[in-house]
Amino acid sequence: MKDYTEYEDKTIVVTGGAGCVGSNLSRKLAEMNAEKVIILDNLSSAYKWNIPKGENIEFIEGDILDDRVLKRVFKANPDYVFHLAAHFANQNSVDNPEKDLMVNGIGILKVLQYAQLTGVERFVYSSSGCGVYGLDSKMPFEEHDISISLHTPYQVTKLLGELYTNYFNNLYDMPIVNARFFNVFGPGEVPGRYRNVIPNFFYWSMTNQALPITGDGSETRDWTFVGDIVNGLVAMGIEERAIGEAINLGSSKDHKVIDMANKVNALTGNTEGIAYAARRNWDAKTKLLSSIDKAKDILNYKPTVSFDDGLQKTYKWFSTNWEDIEVSAEF
């Protein structure tokens, strides 16, 4: 990936900047000599110890639903906004559908309104490739083939976020980009009840527990290393052809859940193996695979970290930060 000098001396807001993608993105932008990277996060599913530190990084603890907090953030007149804050993810939204709608619906609407008033140069929204494509979408998933027959509130509100960004683009000419993530994993994601499978598997494996697979293990996912996602986001903030577009950010490779579980157990030396459970009733997609042709064309996007290397990097991060992870993990 080329180094974008356009970020030098700019003010950038990253909502949800304490999470896995947000913390890695914020660190990258700070290293690219941004004047200031403002991280806004309410720490509902993230932790202060995971926030990157730097002279040009400012952390504001607060909620995207709080106008007082948003006024404080946007008083800095940011040049770029990366909106990653979300009520995450599928099971959490099934358990708490009203909160999901408030955060992922009203929340993005508020952030968009402040971004429009301050005239941002680019607004990049983290949508979900695992969410906006349905059982009626053909694989590998291409950007034009979204579904309105969805299975969780999270999927519904992630699509709603894209509709709102498109609305602000159409009415106010706001330069937006919708980034559709596929199964992000890597350093920075703390395990927990509503977190992704890979950090949870590392936690359970490192505490000598059998890894619970919901299904038969033949299910596949398009796991994408967080560093590759960050490179795609950085390009989205600059490339002119990306404005108004929805673009997949994935690996364009699928891996079986059982294979991933065995790799995690092998890395950690866990001998407890696998435990099988019934598939959750909302988990209707047994296979996920992205097309990244559009990202290659517009962003010059090219995933560089293999799945095995990404797992090793993740295990190294877990090992290095184990004391904090063990205290923070909430199940």
* Overall 3D form: globular
Measured between the Cα atoms of the first and last residue, the distance is: 37 Å
Topology pattern, helix = H, strand = E: EHEEHEHHEHHEEHEEEHEEHEHHH
Strands of the biggest beta sheet: in what spatial order? 3-2-1-4-5-6-11
Uncertain runs are: none
Please specify the SSE layout and strand pairing.
Elements: E1 11-15, H1 20-31, E2 36-41, E3 57-61, H2 67-74, E4 80-83, H3 90-95, H4 97-118, E5 122-128, H5 129-132, H6 153-172, E6 176-181, E7 184-185, H7 197-206, E8 211-214, E9 220-221, E10 224-225, H8 226-236, E11 245-249, E12 255-256, H9 257-268, E13 274-277, H10 293-299, H11 307-320, H12 322-328
Parallel strand pairs: 1-2, 1-4, 2-3, 4-5, 5-6, 6-11, 7-10, 8-13
Antiparallel strand pairs: 9-12
Structure in words:
The protein has 331 residues and is α/β, with parallel strands linked by helices. The chain has 12 helices and 13 strands. The protein has helices at residues 20-31, 67-74, 90-95, 97-118, 129-132, 153-172, 197-206, 226-236, 257-268, 293-299, 307-320, 322-328; strands at 11-15, 36-41, 57-61, 80-83, 122-128, 176-181, 184-185, 211-214, 220-221, 224-225, 245-249, 255-256, 274-277. The protein has a 7-stranded parallel sheet with strand order 3-2-1-4-5-6-11, with helices on both faces. Strands 7-10 form a two-stranded parallel ribbon. The chain is globular and about 55 Å long. It starts with 10 loop residues before the first strand and ends with a helix.
